[in-house]
Amino acid sequence: MSTHNVTVTVNGAEHSADVESRLLLVHLIRDVLRLTGTHVGCDTSNCGACTVLLDGVAVKSCTLFAVQANGKSITTVEGLAQNGTLHPMQAAFREHHGLQCGFCTPGMMLSAIAFLESNPDPTDEEIRWGISGNLCRCTGYQNIVTAAHRAAATMRART
Amino acid sequence: MIPSSFEYHAPGTVAEAVALLKTHGEDAKILSGGHSLVPLMKLRFATPAVIIDINNIPGLDYVKEEGGMLKIGALAREVTLERSPIVAQKFPLIADVVKVIADPQVRNRATVAGNLAHGDPANDHPAVMLALGAEVELTGPNGTRTLPVSELFVDVLQTALAPDEVLTEIRVPIPPAGSGGAYYKIERKVGDFATIAVGSQVTLDSGGKVTAAGIGLTNAGGTPLKATEAEAYLVGKALDDATLKEAGRLAMECSDPSSDTRAPADYKKAMVQELTIRTLKRAAERARGGKA
Asked: A59, B108: Cβ pair inside 8 Å?
């Protein structure tokens, strides 16, 4: 068994921990750092509930080891709101009822945010493509797509 | 859910990675994209004692045109191919396949080299690289060697890589003018492995006759398959319906898919023929300059 010191910046704050090499990144985030907004959904790298941004790139944190994030920066759902103000994506999900049980929602929002970085003015079809790595069992996706579409408009207006 | 324990190394150069492979031999696995390996480890279908993470090695993530070849480095991610202008312009077959590999998050990490080196007939790039006549560069303790992709796949999850070799580059010849390719994948849902998939690449002369053809099959047997008889049959012929049907039949004959939860074997075999016909048609359309 090998243990390693891992230093990661999560939502702007630096954290250090000694972890087994086999510790999954999602478990570092949830169990060691106690940021439980990132969820474990499927065990097979399918559902995307574990999605976080690693150096700004959307990844499935259940399919990386914590040691692979050493020296990198991570954004989780807890890092979206700034000074008590919801991120436009969060505000849009709330306003357009883009969630029911909420289990897929953190990963869904982070995927949508990452997608909009490369396509800030997408069609609904393109949004569906951009979130195709995130499964939702509750909503049938329509309100998620609407929310992402509205958030995109808000975010464009700000730049 | 939780992989078995392993020793973890993150070398900074290819030479270091190779040295580690030489020391640990079959106990070690290379971690690049990790999106075939880590899921297996989480289910404990793979329990390597040593993991050699090559993600920190600089200079391996290129996709470039050089010397009449498309050269893809060991750490080039699928998303890089998705965004590559060279791929979009000259390799419609690769542009097609990248879109149907997994999903955006996976494509941000998964590497093309890993997709080949893993040796899974369900991975999509092998069929494409077989159809394109690609070769791979393997780096070991004694230097590099080049292997045609047609010699890379040995058995299920087994390639011709020696235990102390790293797949460091993929080289694909730039197709001549009058070429086109297409990949069709039947899948149960977005992001799934192929129920069955076929990739075709053709070059047509000014008379519309085939001068070169490549056909690769995904998840149609224990390894990725090259439909060599169908390919040879097509040379010199025009792609009329009868020729397409026969090429499809020859491709079907060389396939040996298994029944599983995705589909029964006879359906998969029938679809090899159907997808061969459709991909050849699409490839020919593109070869003639039709819009993607």
From this structure: yes
Q: Which of A63, A111, A136 to mutate to test the interface with B (most CBs of B within 10 A)?
A: A63
Token pair 């589909």 in the structure block, residue = B263
Alpha-carbon distance A87 to nearest alpha carbon in chain B (angstroms): 21
| Contact call for residues B168 and B98 (beta carbons, < 8 A) | no
Buried b (16+ CB within 10 A) or exposed e, B193-223: bbbbbbbbbbbbeeeeebebbbbbbbbbbeb
The H or E element containing residue B29 is strand B28-31
> Do B38 and A58 lie within an 8 Å CB cutoff?
no
CA distance B44 to B41: 5
CA distance B191 to chain A (A): 7
Cβ–Cβ below 8 Å for A132 and B191: yes
Closest CA relative to residue B50, chosen from B3, B120, B105: B3
Strand partners, B69: B66, B173
Contact A63/B34, CB-based, under 8 Å? Answer: yes
Alpha-carbon distance B11 to nearest alpha carbon in chain A (angstroms): 12
Structure pTM?
Answer: 0.95
End-to-end, the C-alpha distance of chain B in Å comes to 41
Tally of residues, chain A: 159
- Note the Cα A47 to chain centre separation in Å: 12
> Tens-digit pLDDT profile for chain A (159 aa)?
679 999 999 999 999 999 999 999 999 999 999 999 999 999 899 999 999 999 999 999 999 999 999 999 999 999 999 999 999 999 999 999 999 999 999 999 999 999 999 999 999 999 999 999 999 999 999 999 999 999 999 999 987
Q: Which residues lie closer than 8 Å to A12 by C-beta, 6 or more apart?
A: A79
| Cross-chain Cβ contact B104/A111 below 8 Å | yes
Q: For the CA atoms of chain A, what is the radius of gyration?
A: 16
Cβ contact, residue pair B39, A68, below 8 Å: no
> Complex ipTM above 0.95?
yes
- Residue of chain B whose Cα is closest to the Cα of A60: B105
